[in-house]
Amino acid sequence: MFLLFGFGTKQRHVGPGDSRTCPRCHNTTRWARMRQYRQFTLFFVPVARWKRQELEVCGICGTSAVV
Fold first, then answer.
1. Helix %, strand %, coil % for the chain, to 5?
2. 59 touches 50 (CB < 8 A)
3. What is the pTM of this model?
């Protein structure tokens, strides 16, 4: 019998976020709003998702902040 499964973190772009100054690179830019979650897949079909959260990510350096 052959069983194919996967486990990992996925991010999905939701839309534009707020304009803010990044604490890491000190640039003022529009951040991107992302939805991040952990998921378990079985035969490439998502079976379970957990640890869902919304983030905003800096467009220049990639630093993220929980919304």
1. 0, 70, 30
2. no
3. 0.77
CA–CA dist 57, 18 (Å, integer): 10
Side chain identity at residue 27, one-letter code: N
Report yes or no: 52 and 35 within 8 Å, Cβ to Cβ: yes
Residue 52 burial class via C-beta count within 10 angstroms: exposed 0-12, middle 13-18, buried 19 and up = exposed
- Per-residue pLDDT tens over the stretch 27-58: 999 999 999 999 999 998 999 999 999 999 99
The Cα-based distances of 42 to 1, 8, 16, 28, 67 in angstroms read: 14, 12, 32, 42, 31
Task: Let me know: does 29 contact 22? Beta carbons within 8 Å.
Answer: yes
